[in-house]
# Entry
Amino acid sequence: MKNKFKPTNRKFLFLNTLDWYIAREYLIILILCLIAFNGLILVLELFSYLGNFLTAPNTSLSVAVNYFINKQVVHIGLIVPVSLFLSCVYFIGKMESSNEIKVIRSAGISLFRFTLPIYIIAMLITAITVFLNLNVIPQCKFEAMMRTNVIYYGNFIKESFAKSIFYKTQDEKTWNIESFVNFNELCGVYLKKTYDKENYELVLRAPKVTYSDKEGWKFFNATVSRYGYQGTKLTCNFDTSYKKVIRQIPSSPVISNYKLIDRNSPIYKDFGNLPETPYDIINTVKQPPHIPASYIVQRLKMLKGKKSIYRNILKTELYSRVVFPFLSMLLLGIIITIIGKNNNGRTAFNQCKAVILITIYMFTAKSFLVFGYSGAIPPFIAVILPAFIMVPYFYYLNIKN
# Structure
């Protein structure tokens, strides 16, 4: 008599029931962790700053709401990795205590395979966090800092950027701003455009300048000086002491006055259509944690070949935003291995061990950033070294042991 039942082949690529179960249960715990940590931090922020916002004479409800929203986004960079770790600690420990891991392992499925949905979820969330770290979170840090300044100053933009700001573009334009009224209004603007091939310069001075995305720059009561233009030539002399060419600007430039210079003015195009924005100018005086990644890359190109502490700070800041979240995946693998091992009722001990390991890793990673900022260690090495310290331990848990 022939056997009517054929054995089914085990599927390793996609285990429908198990994968969906692991993904669903882990996501529920992860979402609860994210909500709990965000709620806790929001309550702490409300206790710390809400009273100041309500009592300060120059604040409003919209400023306070804007601050708390930006601070919630800022904390994502820290909350997400911690939530990934702690939710994994709880979930794997729960499965171990209910003997689910024993049943899955007895079916011939490895620890890595049945926890693969956790790695996939963590990788997707980590990729989103990296995107936010590069450009969104730095801007939110800056916005939140500006809103806290309003507690002590009437105009947070004007007081924060009261000093003169110098900004040089890649197409040989130089901006000098005396002060900001707000993000779209500037006072005491000096703008210079150099034409090396034509051998002349344009210098614009305006007491008031406004900007909008729709209309661009507007210069009110502006004065434009043309050096080396309409018959006035720039001359160059060779200075042997400094071994460089020094441009001598004539004392009698051609000066023109304008009530308004905007996109429709012919002189506007002579300055290169001015694609830069007030945010580009403000980025020059921001602290590195507040600078978007795209602008950090531009600064590093300008500082290429130069040894400076500021260059090390920018490099460390950029590498930490990109590398640190992904290196946390190694720690996630260690956590799963520690708790997922069959240790006959030592689940609680292994959970405590994993939490201690998380704390040590986070503290070590942040400490090594200080060495990267100072230049004592190359920035890239300072970022990845804490994770590579964990590699021998990961090897011991998964291969040797």
Remarks:
- Residues 142 and 286 are 8 Å apart (CA to CA).
- DSSP finds 13 helices and eight strands in the chain.
- Confidence is low (pLDDT under 50) at residues 229-249.
